[in-house]
Design brief:
There is one protein chain. It is built from 14 helices and 15 strands. Helix 10 (298-309) packs parallel to helix 11. It folds into 2 domains: 6-174 and 384-389, 3-Layer(aba) Sandwich (Rossmann fold), CATH 3.40.50.1260; 188-343, 3-Layer(aba) Sandwich (Rossmann fold), CATH 3.40.50.1260. The protein has helices at residues 36-40, 42-50, 75-85, 98-105, 129-136, 170-184, 199-209, 223-229, 244-256, 298-309, 330-341, 351-359, 373-381, 386-389; strands spanning 15-19, 54-58, 90-91, 112-114, 141-144, 166-168, 190-194, 215-218, 260-262, 266-270, 279-283, 292-296, 313-317, 345-348, 368-369. It is α/β, with parallel strands linked by helices and 401 residues long. The radius of gyration is 23 Å and the shape is elongated. Strand 3, helix 4 (98-105) and strand 4 form a beta-alpha-beta unit. The structure holds adenosine-5'-diphosphate (ADP) and magnesium ion. Adenosine-5'-diphosphate is lined by residues 195-197, 201, 220-221, 238, 293-294, 317-319, 321-322, 324, 350-353, 373. Magnesium ion binds next to helix 12.
């Protein structure tokens, strides 16, 4: 990465404001159900603690829309983090007030303070300069480690970098290095597996990936738009008619680039999206007009498995079917298993793909699982994320005089 990280500057004993992504799922009792994102921030936090920093953490949680929502306080997150670190984590009940400023300035070396949910303040999403300046006033250095929020132009991800020396955290660096590595020098053969429900979410990624992959395997709801673009009758399957033209362009680009663009040969269909619906396997040429495709079929699974077994690099985003329901989980499970069995580098992006891996108990064997769904796709589109652009460059560019 061409941005300075926390290791490129002197942080010893300083007050460091770290934007983390602690946007974790909570259950009805307000307990953290999945702490993966909190664990992912530990390398940066532990590094700062090892340098005797005074650590001030800040994050959003959910979508509270600029006002306090009791259920979205970060208190359970502070408790979870405290257990992980085996040391106290102070928790502020506000984002920035005089009281919080005092708490921040009273921090001793090695102490940690977590601010309240940033999105309780309307200035966060608006990237309000006043709010950003207030956040910056708490510390000497700003670190962005919230990869999952780096595609957002908010006060805590972009604005604050105007007022403090701003560097990347270790998670942010790892995310960018892994994802950029796919675009820059992937070990070949490189196979991408794309599914999920919407073509519109993925079309720019497909476009970029077609420049670097050797094969693209498709499934999920989005493949029906491609099947329709090829002139097939897709029955009642999910389809984005407004994306048909893009779909055709992508199929043409694949042909031009001599990249195998694989669509399912058979699918599991049912007349409704329900766990108890009657379902059967049909070839894609024979989808009944009153049925919808909800998973890839066995012939497709076996073809995809064979291709995945030859890959040295695999990127996966988007489930192959409605994996949340038993009758339609098989394609996602089998493809996930094939990815896990691969001896190559395996990288997964996307919230639902990650959830699928966890459902099948396969998450431990993947080389790298991105913590940012939307942000990971943006990187793979080749976009520059605003939260990264705002950080200091490694090399100072000198102007010729
Ligand atoms: P990710 O979060 O991994 O990027 P997406 O959000 O794009 O994935 O898509 C995940 C959703 O797509 C899942 O909720 C899944 O049920 C849905 N899905 C997969 N296949 C189909 C299908 N054939 N029809 C309708 N929805 C589907
Ligand atoms: Mg999703």
């Amino acid at each position: 990465m061409d941005k300075k990280t926390v290791k490129d500057i002197d942080v010893s004993g300083k007050r460091v404001l770290v934007r983390v992504d602690f946007n974790v799922p909570l259950n009805e009792n307000g307990e953290v159900v999945d702490g993966t994102r909190i664990e992912a921030a530990l390398p940066t936090i532990n590094y700062l603690l090892s340098k005797n920093c005074k650590v001030i953490l800040m994050s959003h949680l959910g979508r509270p829309d600029g006002k306090v929502e009791e259920k979205l306080r970060l208190t359970p997150v502070a408790e979870f983090l405290s257990e992980l670190l085996e040391r106290p984590v102070k928790k502020a009940d506000k984002t920035v007030t005089d009281e919080v400023k005092t708490a921040a300035s009273n921090l001793k070396e090695g102490e940690i303070l977590l601010l309240e949910n940033l999105r309780f303040n309307p200035g966060e999403k608006k990237n309000d300069p006043e709010f950003a300046k207030n956040l910056a006033s708490l510390a000497d250095i700003y670190v962005n480690d919230a990869f999952g929020a780096a595609h957002r132009t908010h006060a805590s991800t972009v604005g604050v970098a105007n007022y403090l020396p701003a560097v990347a955290g270790l998670l942010l660096e790892k995310e960018i290095d892994n994802l950029n590595g796919l675009l820059e020098n992937p070990k070949k053969p490189f196979i991408a597996v794309l599914g999920g429900n919407k073509v519109s979410d993925k079309v720019k990624v497909i476009d970029r990936l077609l420049d670097v992959v050797d094969g693209l395997l498709t499934g999920g709801g989005m493949c029906f738009t491609f099947l329709k673009a090829k002139g097939l009758n897709i029955g009642n399957s999910i389809c984005q008619n407004e994306e048909l033209e893009h779909a055709e362009e992508m199929l043409k680009k694949a042909e031009k680039n001599k990249v195998g663009f694989y669509l399912p040969k058979d699918v599991v269909v049912a007349n409704e999206l329900s766990e108890s619906a009657n379902h059967k396997v049909v070839s894609v040429e024979n989808i009944p007009s009153d049925q919808k495709g909800l998973d890839i079929g066995p012939e497709t699974i076996s073809e995809y498995k064979k291709i995945l077994a030859t890959a040295s690099t695999i990127f996966w985003n988007g489930p192959m079917g409605v994996f949340e329901m038993k009758p339609f989980e098989n394609g996602t499970r089998e493809v996930a298993q094939a990815i896990v069995d691969s001896k190559g580098t395996t990288i997964v992006g996307g919230g639902d793909s990650d959830a699928a891996l966890k459902k099948f108990g396969l998450e431990k064997t993947i080389s790298f699982i991105s913590t940012g769904g939307g942000a990971s796709l943006k990187v793979l589109e080749g976009a520059v994320l605003p939260g990264i652009e705002a950080l200091m460059d490694k090399k100072k560019i000198r102007c010729k005089t």
